[in-house]
Specification:
Two copies of one chain form a homodimer. By secondary structure, chain A is mainly α. Chain A has two domains: 152 residues, no CATH class; 333 residues, Orthogonal Bundle (Neurolysin, domain 3). In chain A, a hairpin with a 2-residue loop joins strand 2 and strand 3. Chain A is globular and about 70 Å long. The termini of chain A are far apart. Chains A and B meet through helix 1 and helix 2 of A and helix 1, helix 2 and strand 1 of B.
Chain lengths: 507, 507
């Protein structure tokens, strides 16, 4: 039986490529946190150059030679030696990456890196000034670029599928459309129930003054209790919260800060903390190889949403943390009891900004983006039409319309970064999260009590054991089946939400 | 006549290498400022990998092929075409770098990067605990490594020369020994005069409370007045102040902060600001090529010392800034007039820490290090002997002896980073600085008035024009001659200092 040690030359070469990728990640982190503005243009050139170098190595003759030693370079099928499971998975995933990368010329990759780096800077300014037209030409270039990319990737039935496959391997428009259509129907029905409910929790106090330092300190305490290691990570401020990893020993998160909105910073900290636990939970021994990489964006998002909503919006969590929160903000919460607070953070209220949306309407925000990017990719929707279409869909699904594009079509960085096909993974993450958490409750009968007493790392270890440590060894579909005994099933999400909201809203 | 545009393929390739080097610089900056501690080991691996990659490109077959198109690859002599001056200089300097780099195997470069990265982290802890023995084995490895390096570089007459040549091309032990001996004699005599003087300025008030934020704000104001662009730079805190450049549009400085020592943070800001003006003043068009790089550490240091001492410890500078300083620290300076302040910041007082030394004794600190590293390199001085020898020399030259190695042989990061041959450039910088500034006064007759009225950028533009924009086009010796009309002449430094101290101390 052959094992990973037979693949050592390949693993060392993959690690070399990873070192460039980790430098790219640091350059990007720095760009979002500390880089002086004047350095933007040179940074764009630098990102393009380094991404080009990594790409060249990924598709170069050395990689081809290495892979050809063990697999048929046309099909990816291993020579008929007996490989153990991890090695077989490693070869399968390396070939998957190679086969995708080899179709993109280095020139294309460099061009894409440069355009998206500049576009992200233009987007930041356009958003500040709520000036969609100044961003439109850049977005137009990016849409053209992504179509070019999809056609280079070739063998996919639809250009949008080719892009989705980057983020959620195996997922297709054909699977997503009915899944999302059914979900949208259920969510719209649930939203109507909520809006017709006889009672509704107040949440005005969430907009009292929550001093920044104490918000950060409280967030830090929660992150530490979850098991996020500040020895192997840090938290900074940025325009849009994100998690980035250079190695399992250096996984950084960012948050935004609003002193008059407790939800904004706290739940983004929990969210990014969940992502970060996944990155910190990868097996460092496999660093640089697919076995040391996260599986898909949907699975990544399941980790963040599990903590943000599954845990962070649950009663047991606040049974433990509410007294601590009250101690940190005695004046702000002077007249507010636990029940009222719990109602407020679970309040459903259609609003404009995805990252601040409640658990229910969040997925409707995703539908808006999914449908628009599908139209951009598959129906040649002109970029200029986006704000109009955005506002129409917001009206139809959420009943609210942004006054300005800053709160509408310009709110997310994703398209500026070329990330088309990314948005659907947010909703997939919500669905996976609910299904995983339901299984964790079955596997750990004491879980609610543990969480109620602050022993959150019991859940972290379960996630490490069941999900994190495997990296890309299994497909998302296989992983979900291995962990929960059944395929992806959206009813865990919908039923859980209906139950929680039914209690709060009295239906 | 052939020009730079004929060298375009070479220039593009050099720029590609520079992109890796700039990533290495960011990784190092991050390591000193924001990196979580747990990420240290992976960072060391990463630096080693990237430096190895850059080195491989520098010495690889593609570089050889490129160079061979225009020069004899054995001697560096251009094929007998007619090249204009910049192209000739570019080819000369690229060959110089190539010829050095090609002698160091990639394996060696990776090993060195990794050992020095770990050693710098060990040094930081050893310094904190004043524990030289815990650092000694790492330093021993580094000394062995540097000797190995010197022998690989081969054709130098002494191992120490081979290392000095990295930092100050053309400088040798043979030139340095008499230069430094004469200087030491003059400085010891001057120190004796100062110590026997009938009067001495008080400086107790420099150790009153100087709140950190206001120190940073005042430092920032001075940096802006000098012409340092915060649009293309930023200032952070680190254990040891430094300047790093990723591109002329992104040049960062760091400082340290001590609320009970005004000199420490302010003059290190001025110092790093001087370095940064040089980096920001390079011609971005030549980015990545020797024509867009700084010339030598001695010349670099001349820029920092010119601002720190030549300007920052001069009366015209404080004529302008003292009222502003008093406004920022009204209580601290309540009872202190300009004359007293000027005396205090120019007070000569032998002390333990190089970076906090006065203008005179600073060079004696350099002599201690120069003599020790020369003995390490040329006389096999055992590493364990360093603290004893250090303390003996401090006693002999400065008359003070550290209580702990944290304030003695562990105070500087240089050796941990493998930078042997670096220290002498500090004193060379002082000498160049005095000579350049004397010339600036001749070229700009109104300079003292301008500075006294806050028009510091007149000097910055002179430096841009005379020094910065040339990059490595001329040798240090040629540059000094071009700018000042004569070779390096230490009497500008000694005479200037004697005059200033004579006034203050009344001799």
């Amino acid at each position: 039986m052959k094992s990973l040690k037979d693949l050592k030359p390949l693993i060392l070469f993959l690690r070399e490529i990873q070192q460039i990728n980790s430098a790219v990640s640091l350059l990007s982190w720095d760009q979002e946190t500390y880089m002086p503005k004047g350095g933007g243009e040179a940074r764009a050139e630098q990102l393009a150059a380094l991404e080009g170098m990594a790409h060249q190595k990924k598709i170069g003759p050395h990689m081809k030679r290495l892979l050809s030693r063990w697999i048929d370079i046309k099909t990816g099928v291993p020579e008929d030696e007996v490989w153990d499971d991890p090695s077989r998975a490693l070869l399968r995933e390396v070939f998957r990456d190679y086969n995708k990368a080899v179709r993109l010329p280095t020139e294309f990759v460099k061009r894409e890196a440069k355009i998206t780096s500049i576009a992200q800077q233009v987007w930041a300014e356009a958003k500040e000034k709520s000036d969609f037209p100044s961003f439109a030409p850049y977005l137009k270039s990016i849409v053209a670029l992504k179509k070019e990319e999809a056609s280079l990737l070739a063998d996919q039935s639809s250009p949008y599928d080719a892009l989705i496959d980057y983020y959620e391997p195996g997922m297709t428009v054909t699977r997503l459309v009915p899944l999302f259509a059914a979900l949208k129907k259920e969510l719209l029905a649930l939203l109507e129930k909520v809006q017709r409910a006889p009672i509704a929790p107040r949440d005005d106090f969430l907009h009292r003054c929550w001093p920044a330092r104490r918000q950060l300190a409280f967030g830090r305490r929660v992150l530490e209790t979850m098991g996020y290691s500040f020895l192997c990570g840090r938290q900074d401020l940025s325009a849009h919260p994100f998690t980035t990893s250079f190695h399992p020993t250096d996984v950084r998160i960012t948050t935004r800060m609003n002193e008059y909105n407790f939800l904004s910073s706290f739940f983004s900290s929990l969210h990014e903390g969940g992502h970060a636990l996944y990155d910190q939970g990868l097996n460092a021994e496999y660093f640089g190889t697919p076995l040391g990489e996260t599986l898909s964006l949907g699975i990544h998002e399941s980790q963040s949403r599990l903590w943000e909503n599954g845990i962070g919006r649950s009663m047991p969590f606040w049974n433990y943390f509410y007294p601590i929160l009250k101690e940190a903000f005695p004046r702000t919460l002077q007249d507010i009891g636990l029940e009222a607070f719990y109602g407020a953070i679970n309040r459903v209220s259609p609003s404009l900004i995805r990252v601040e949306a409640d658990e229910l309407t969040y997925n409707l925000h995703v539908m808006v983006r999914f449908e628009i990017e599908r139209a951009l990719m598959e129906e040649d929707l002109p970029v200029e039409e986006i704000p109009r279409l955005w506002n129409e869909k917001m009206e139809a699904y959420l009943g609210v319309v942004p006054d300005s594009d800053a709160d509408g079509a310009l709110q997310d960085i994703h398209w500026a970064g070329g990330a088309f096909g990314y948005f659907p993974t947010y909703t997939l993450g919500n669905l996976y999260a609910a299904q995983f958490l339901s299984q964790a409750r079955k596997d750990i009968p004491s879980l609610e009590t543990d969480i109620g007493q602050g022993r959150l790392t019991i859940l972290t270890h379960w996630l490490n054991e069941k999900i994190h440590r495997f990296g890309r060894r299994y497909s998302s579909d296989d992983l979900v089946r291995r962990v929960t005994g059944e395929p992806l099933n959206p009813s865990y999400f919908v039923d859980g939400l209906r139950e929680k909201l039914g209690e709060i809203y009295g239906f």
